[in-house]
Amino acid sequence: MLATGNRAPDFTARDQSDRPVSLSDLLKTGPLILYFYPADFTPGCTREACSLRDVYSQLLAAKITVAGVSPQSPQSHAAFAAKYALPFTLLCDPGKTMARDYKVVGPLGFGVRRASFLINGAGIIEDAVLADLRIGRHEAFFRKAAAAGSR
């Protein structure tokens, strides 16, 4: 996993509306929480996405953008976002290129690890958490980012 202080790797990926989105697009208004998750509609990933949804207004108030990344298609992401009223961008990484660049591919190249990055407007990783099964650590990370950004 990339460490604090590293430059966030650039990317362009398709979102849930099948539109291209780049890192620079997401950083236009300020910091970004970029979080990687294994798959749409799984219990842990649903809990994580809903926890982000629940603090999203606080993150917006702190001028923090949010984007999730997993290997699924735009159609899967669109259905996931619609079912759980997710107000943020979901990016498709079918070849796990982004996951490899951010060093969050699972053991032996299988799957994607659950990781969250706080990237500042200059594209530098300010904070990060890797916790595959401990969703609560990601929830705390999201709340901490919202609180710090609102100061």
Write up what this structure looks like.
By secondary structure, the protein is α/β, with parallel strands linked by helices. It is built from five helices and seven strands; from the N terminus they run ββαβαβαβαββα. The strands form two sheets. A five-stranded mixed beta sheet has the order 5-4-3-6-7. The chain has a two-stranded antiparallel sheet with strand order 1-2. The longest helix has 19 residues, at 43-61. The N and C termini lie far apart (28 Å).
Q: Can you give me a brief rundown of this structure?
A:
With 151 residues, this protein is of the alpha/beta class.
Return Rg in Å: 14 Å
**What would the average pLDDT be, to the nearest integer?**
93
- Kindly report the spatial arrangement of strands forming the biggest sheet: 5-4-3-6-7
State the secondary-structure class: alpha/beta
Give the N-to-C terminal Cα separation: 28 Å
Total strands: the figure is 7
Enumerate the spans where pLDDT stays under 50 for 5 or more consecutive residues. none
Tell me the β content. Answer: 15-25%
* Secondary-structure element order, N to C: EEHEHEHEHEEH
> What gross morphology would you assign?
globular
Estimate percent helicity.
Answer: 25-40%
Q: Number of DSSP helices? A: 5
Main pleated-sheet profile: 5 strands, mixed
